[in-house]
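Minutes, methods subgroup
Present: GH (chair), OT, SY

1. OT presented the first of two proteins processed in the latest run. Sequence and structure tokens recorded below as shown on screen.
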Amino acid sequence: MKQKHEKVTAHVIGLLTVFILLASLALVTGGKLMGHKMTSNTEDPAISQLANGSVKVNTTVLGKDIAGYAGTTPLDIYITNGVVDSVTPLPNEETPGFFKRLEKDRLYDNWKGVSAEKAASMEVDAVSGATFSSKAVIANVKAGCNAYVAEYGGTVATGNKEDSLAVKTIVVLLAILSGAILPLFIKNKTYRTIQEVVNVAVLGFWGGTFVDYAMMIGFFVNGYGVAALSTILLLIVALLYPIFGHDNHYCNWMCPYGSLQELCGKVTKKKIHISTKGLKFLDNFRYALWVVLIVFLFAGWGTGWIDYEIFTAFIVKSASAAVIVVAAIFLVLSVFVQRPFCRFVCPTGSLLKILGKN
């Protein structure tokens, strides 16, 4: 009994350590914690009249629940006599490279010269290579123009959601629940393979849903409501399950890239032998890499790495070629070495292992 209590205590201490670390990173990188600014600076009003007669719509509050890949994407929308003059992005937590693609593809020009009423409902294609960021910008424009129309007159767009989106959300949630619950009761290789295929197909390629630093820090920076239920469920499994004795449940049973590596490993039973000394070196390398990357985040150097973790390779339309190539290399290695990325590199896994330390 004493040993059990000591183990639970160790898990709780690990959980508090992870929470403090993520909360600190949220404050350093985003200046907010769970959507609340830690400074006394007041935000611009959602709608303000300018000296030249134009109207500026600021979507910081209007779009507080609209997130791109790493966070919210607020905009300033300038409107004169009911017509959009320009759309300007405000400081945000998204990767700068994604926003450069939006500018290069002239996404913001889609609304120039368009009436606010039309802009609130018009369909605009997302930019290839920056799908999440561009969809967030499009949603912000719609929210901002709807607010303008509601204030100055016109028909507010209803923004009906596509049925396919609702179906996708439900399927992703079911996949998360199956990985979170069924392994607690079902213990056989056939089921494990089925769950791995579901993780790769549904959570990975279809849903682009996984735990990484961008997701965790984004959660601590912005906070999420019911719309991000999948994020909350994944964090519950990743951060809270170890307290109840299920160490590394997310990594072992739900991570899409870990599942894909394990599936590749089934190609052959012949594996490369790594000596004890070699394993110790690789383990030390993993933690040394993790410490360096965390220091980078706190120091503000090279923080963009969190948006290029290997898991983003599943989001093919938005992933960089380099990430896809590295992901492919580790998949080839996983045929001969059991889950090499998980065991010897993964920064996210290194953080979650703190929860499993006894």
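2. SY then presented the second protein from the same run.
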Amino acid sequence: MTAKEKARRAAASAAIDGVLKYIKKSPEENFVKMLNLVERFADGSFPEKNFDAFRKAATDKNNVWHNFAMGLINDLDHNALKKMLLAVGLGAAIDGTKKVRENREKYKCNIPFIILLDPTSACNLNCKGCWSAQYGNKFNLSLDDMRSIVKQGTELGTHFYMFTGGEPLIRKNDILALCEENPDCGFLAYTNATFVDEKFCEDMKRVGNLTLALSVEGTQRTNDARRGEGSYERSMKAMRLLRENGLFFGLSVCYTAQNVDAVTSDEFLDKMIANGAKYALYFNYMPVGKDAVEALIPTPEQRKFMYGWLRKMRNGETGKPIFVMDFQDDGEYVGGCIAGGRNYFHINSAGDMEPCVFIHYADSNIHTDTILEALRKPLFQAYWHNQPFNDNHLRPCPLLENPQCLRKIIAETGAKSTNLEAPEGVETLCSRCDKFAKEWQPVADELWASRKHPNPKTQYYRDMKKD
């Protein structure tokens, strides 16, 4: 952190302490004070209307988001909440966003808001359809590797890091070290929850800037059918520990053609909310790897249902007090595909820098290239010059909805497969998506034409002209 950033952090920390000290005496009033504080430190980075909408929701007791806000205030450990606000709010959303935008202009390439990295390819489970399984279980990023990634990233403005895998909490001590060394960064780990215990919860409270997204998919039957017998109960036990310790956590939900009803049911959401989950990140099943099952891709009808369901869940009158998002069906809010460094990219456990967690190709590696060098190499440049891949942002992905785009990118850049178990040709990969892409196109186009959509260019898309 620069001296100026440290001073701002100290001022923000003192101000948050002041608000939190009295917050339970008058939660509604003081939550608005906290929003006002965040807006002041944002210094115009985000539209004023966004804060107006947050304030309105927080003060309307009949609004779902009022209940959500009160849940954050009443349920979370205040020290951990403060540290998370400083990391994600001040470090990532405010200071980070400004620097990311400056460096996009300076270097004429995508600069990510988030970097995903795999501390290890090892996992203690064997979930059906897991894309990470194709990496095998022999590779690890060293702690020094991960320190270098975070150092390079923060210099570019990236202040948010997500750990995938494998099972990242196999390396939980190293993850905690990174969190402690980088209080201006937010960290999230996607986890099967098997390594969550009381000691780890205490460590999470101490560092404050780590959140977990637990893999839970519907009922015990639908969850264990994919993740193995007993995995549901282990996740529920971990959730209870996290809730009892006042920690901020959520869910990671892979929805397939077989479990859409289960993972969107009132029963599922109500149970997760009751057990303390504050957010749910939904992922469309992607047919990646030698064991991929094309039949698990949600149907066009299911995708259309998900589009409507998400908006119902986020509506202040019809929703529930949990923030849900879907990286596929929320493409309109972020201008289509966010991969290739536009908003994020992925570093696997062997150090390969891939455009996406589902696009296992690379032309760079952290052991031979810097992050900036990778972003300026042909593969990431192909993303920068071709995004968005479709003007209909309900068809964002160069693989699932526009497989001809990925075929072209790999052919032109010569990027190599990073599938460490069984290298996968781009034709083999894309051919699994051709049928869905063709069938989804008319449904998505009709849906896109039927309503107005936000213009996310200023906030989320590059603000420059292409060379």
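Chair's summary of item 2: The first strand starts at residue 114 and ends at 117.
Next meeting: continue with the remaining queue.
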